[in-house]
Design brief:
Layout lengths: L13 H9 L66 E8 L3 E2 L5 E9 L5 E11 L10 E10 L3 E9 L6 E2 L5 E2 L3 E8 L6 E7 L1
Parallel strand pairs: 2-10
Antiparallel strand pairs: 1-3, 3-6, 4-5, 4-9, 7-8, 9-10
Length: 203
């Protein structure tokens, strides 16, 4: 099939809304709020899982001794934040205005979002952050912000985010809610999987 509609509890006007999407009166812009597994044996599966000491893609250990399933892929069938539309949207030129950040500063993140189709579209641009190392294990990425932007046909728009110290805080091993110095990855994209990546250092 070309697409799946996920329409939990659409309400009394749900049928009309679904018909408008199927017949092209509306260009859909929704995103799933969970990760969808390939099969039940893959559960639990979620985008912000903790890092393992032996990740599948980057570990130097042999294939037998890495974190993986024997008969299923590690990644979900549809990642958190995923969603299709009738437009062709691409992301380019992820930039950070600085690569080193003090605790009283902010980092400005910018990305160019392009609509390569004739149709007007609404795109949910998502910003994720990964703390490379912490005093306690940290997730592989965390959603920190998103913006829903409207794009005319065959147009592009620069989308900006700000990263502050509050976006980097977590409960440390001493149960203090604070940010620890170190390197952070920044991801921007249409979902938690298909992202552009850059990094900065908190000093």
């Amino acid at each position: 099939m070309d697409a799946i509609l996920q329409v939990w509890f659409p309400g009394t006007e749900g049928g009309n809304g679904i018909a408008d999407i199927l017949f092209g009166k509306v260009n859909p812009s929704g995103r799933v709020t969970m990760s969808f597994p390939h099969n039940v044996g893959q559960l639990p599966v979620y985008y912000n899982h903790y890092k393992t000491g032996r990740p599948l893609d980057t570990s130097t250990h042999t294939g037998r001794f890495v974190s993986k399933y024997l008969d299923s892929p590690n990644d979900p069938l549809y990642p958190f934040g995923y969603g299709l539309s009738y437009s062709d949207i691409t992301y380019e030129d992820l930039t950070l205005d600085k690569k080193r950040m003090h605790q009283d500063e902010e980092i400005n993140v910018s990305v160019t979002v392009k609509n390569n189709s004739e149709l007007k579209a609404k795109e949910v641009v998502q910003l994720y952050i990964q703390d490379i190392a912490g005093s306690v294990v940290r997730p592989v990425k965390e959603l920190k912000s998103f913006k829903k932007v409207e794009l005319e046909g065959n147009s592009s728009k620069n989308v900006d985010f700000k990263i502050s110290i509050n976006d980097l805080k977590f409960y440390t091993k001493d149960m203090n809610y604070e940010a620890e110095l170190g390197t952070f990855n920044v991801f921007v994209g249409p979902n938690s999987r298909d992202v552009l990546q850059d990094e900065f250092e908190l000093i």
